[in-house]
Amino acid sequence: MSFPSRKLAWAAAGVFAVGAVTGWAAPALLRTSQSADNVATTASVVAPGPIAPATAPNYRAIVAQNQAAVVGVSVEGRTRVSSSQMPDLGQLFGFDPRHGGPPQSMPMRGQGSGFIISADGLVLTNAHVVKDADQVLVKLTDHREFKAKVLGVDTTSDIAVLKIDTHGLQTVRLGNSDQLSVGDYVLAIGAPFGLEETATAGIVSAKARSLPGDGAVPFIQTDAAVNPGNSGGPLFDATGAVVGINSQIYTNSGGNQGVAFAIPINLAEQVENQIVKNGKVEHGRLGIEVQTLDQSLADSFKLSSPNGALVAKVEPDSAAAHAGLKAGDVILKYNDVKIEDAGQLSARVSMAPPGEQVTLAISRDGKPVTLKVKLGSASELTADNDSSAASDQTHLGLSVRPLTAQEREQSGIASGLVVEDAQGRAAEAGIQQGDVVLAVDGTPVHSVAQLRSLVQDHSKQIALLIQRGESRIFVPVALG
Questions:
Q1: Helical (H) or strand (E) element with 210
Q2: Range(s) within the chain of domains with CATH label 2.40.10.10
Q3: Do 253 and 242 touch, CB atoms closer than 8 A?
Q4: Which residues pair with residue 78 across a beta bridge?
Q5: pLDDT digits over 57-114, tens only?
């Protein structure tokens, strides 16, 4: 299964070097210069003393201890492919099927990785590995293969839990991802490009990375070589404990460029526990749009440093609105935990259970304010997005959400609704995930409630103005 890759218009490389230096550090020297007029005494700057080199981890032992607990995950199924993604065969017959027309159902096969967390067959992997799969096959290192049951999938965190019907399996040891530091050694095992039992090593390049569209996950960034097929595989620390699940890569080429991202194992354990217990995962929701501060914004909002999450929008009738949060507030602490940026806040809110009461320390007009907030549920938003009117005739089958502030800035679109899933009438009309709904019959849409209201006013057909990449097209959707 291929990684979700992020195409970049730029490439950045970081080098972290550790060198052993012997000798001793001289104390600061005093230089005295005298002249007929004055005497000046200055202290010279001395570089930091040498750091004792760390002992490299025993990678051979880590692989030997854990290799049998790392599995290959193969999937088969069918996926919906839009007409714009189909081969250009129709032009041979005088028409171009890529413009308009319903999506086609195409066979889908993929491969990823996973790892065993219980001797009776629980396996962790990525949600995107098993998405749309009709059959999931888990292959062990001893070449045994088992059909797996998908116990649950959480697309928000990109975690899936599988179960295979066997016992006495080798398992990994789960570590504590909160104890990781930048510069720590890590090792990945997986099946890049289908090459099973491949081990690669690197270091932790950064922690708590927030990626566009993935605000719920504070990713571990690493330079360990990971590629398509590593998805869902484990990331080990120097002690041989799993600290992350390899999930995404930044790439211009489609392959490894030294910038990979793993889901922290502490977060994955929370998700796994909910899936095993309830079969699903509930995520908290504040109902705000936030952005990270820079120095200019910090100065404008009378802050001493550019830390915190700036509230750009508060949704009506949301948990944040009920608590009195306002646009222009800067959230500085979440339950006494200092908030450095918008991504950190999003991750904490998303992984909190709905109904939990949290304390927010904010700055409003340069003055400290404390608010108590009872978190809402992200599932309520999904239900609202998918809710239909009185009859099936007005049910579009769309799951949508408003554009984030970052998405508006990057795309240049002032307002619209991002399609997260398309089924039913909408899918039949050719609307697909990633489209942005701009208008209904020429009326611009700004919220899910407005879209639902506009659909309710029609009984037979509507025309949705869609932004797809660089193009804008009207898509007719039959309601009757």
A1: strand 198-211
A2: 63-163, 173-278
A3: no
A4: 107
A5: 999 999 999 999 999 999 988 766 554 444 433 333 333 334 444 555 677 788 999 9
Residue 454 CA to chain centroid, in angstroms? 32
Q: In degrees to the nearest 10, what's the CA dihedral of 360, 318, 290, 182?
A: 60
Q: Does domain 284-378 have CATH number 2.30.42.10?
A: yes
Q: What are the residue numbers of the active site?
A: 128, 158, 231
Do residues 440 and 451 make contact, with C-beta atoms less than 8 angstroms apart? yes
Q: What is the CATH number of domain 173-278?
A: 2.40.10.10
Residue 378 has pLDDT above 50, yes or no: yes
pTM: 0.66
The CATH superfamily assigned to 63-163 is Trypsin-like serine proteases (2.40.10.10)
Distances 15 to 201, 223, 316 between C-alpha atoms, Å: 15, 10, 46
Task: Report whether pLDDT(19) > 50.
Answer: no
* CATH 2.30.42.10 in the chain, residue ranges: 284-378, 387-478
Instruction: State the average pLDDT for the chain.
Output: 80
* pLDDT at site 97: 39
Q: Contact at 8 Å (CB) between 409 and 439?
A: no
Beta strand 471-478 pairing with 461-468: antiparallel
Element containing residue 319 per DSSP (H, E): helix 319-323
Q: May I ask the CATH class of domain 387-478? A: mainly beta
Q: What is the DSSP letter of 318?
A: S
Read off the pLDDT band of 385 (50, 70, 90). Answer: very low
Eight-class DSSP state of 305:
S
E-strand spans in 351-458?
A: 357-364, 367-374, 376-377, 398-402, 417-422, 436-440, 443-444
Mapping DSSP to helix (H, G, I), strand (E, B) and coil, where does residue 458 land? coil
Q: Tell me: pLDDT of 24 over 80.
A: no
Residue 266, helix vs strand vs coil = helix
- Residue 265: which of 280, 286, 245 has the closest Cα? 245
Q: Which of 413, 387, 416 is nearest to 399 (CA)?
A: 387
